[in-house]
Amino acid sequence: xxxxxxxxxxxxSNIKVRTNPNNQPVTISGRSDGLGCIGVGTDAAVFRSIxxxxxxxxxxxxxxxxxxxxxxxxxxxxxxxxxxxxLCGAGDRFLVLSFEQGTTLYDCLLQGIHIPEQVIQDVENAxxxxxxxxxxxxDIHLRNILLQNGRAKILDVSEYIQPGNDGRWEHLKQGYExxxxxxxxxxxxLWLLEAIKKWYLQTNDPNFSFEDFMKKIAKLTxxxx
Length: 225
Description:
three-stranded antiparallel sheet; five-stranded antiparallel sheet; 7 helices
């Protein structure tokens, strides 16, 4: 175990992560001084320790530990890449990743922070790299991409061993290319982003039309304006 991050292990042992039904974010119980939660997903939560600030600790729910092992294999296949965090170690319930500074694209939209075209190209290049490693780049969305010094850093590679294309990135890219210039630099309200997310996740139609979806969003934005 690496001496520079093991100082956080005792604090992590006081944290319990539980999954919730209907693919809802996990519930966290317990607390430890000097440990803060910096991200919550449906299988795990991510913490940062003041005693080891260079790392992010991804703590899995007990019933999702198989996904931890799968994610280790994904990071091992990826190796070192400027597009992704580095795997620095692992414990029984957690992964140790390099902590990455930056603002998620979701928060960029909330705060009106400009998202440069280079970010889109970086994600495209990262997806090509992932395929070259024999993996499947999926589950790439606004909260999984950081704006870091004008470039993209992609978080959460846990689904890269799963088959199929969820279409998320393709729709985000299309939205950026066709509509982002209308909102560039304008902070969007939380209720609007959450409504769009909810509608999108509820879409199960195999004949899904991105243009029709955007027309629905356009009507919703009338309430914002």
